[in-house]
Fold this protein.
Amino acid sequence: QVQLVESGGGSVQAGGSLTLSCAASGYTASSRCMAWFRQAPGKAREGAAAIYAYNSNTNFAYYADSVKGRFAISKENAKNTLYLQMDSLKPEDTAMYYCVASLRSSCDNWSSPSWFDYWGQGTRVTVSS
């Protein structure tokens, strides 16, 4: 049984930083796509960043234009944990953030929620101005 458990959300002022973590169990990330989605109140879910583990030493990262240059996605294989480092946070980054995992062997369509098979419960991020 696959479980994705997010942590690290909270409240921060604009310009601040947060690091989200996602502990994965029952899932092998090698040659598969994992990502962070977010959903702001009243808005559709949006893909923020994705990572494809090509092998144990090589990952490919993808970012939405809205977070490029501010967010960094990474993965620690030994702990089977996904991270999202968020810097220079803006009020528009306020959302519920979800860790997601796919059984597909690429991140070709990573911005589509339907690309992913497993979703965590989410962790809330609030950025105040």
About this structure: The chain has no helices and eleven strands. The chain has a mean pLDDT of 95.
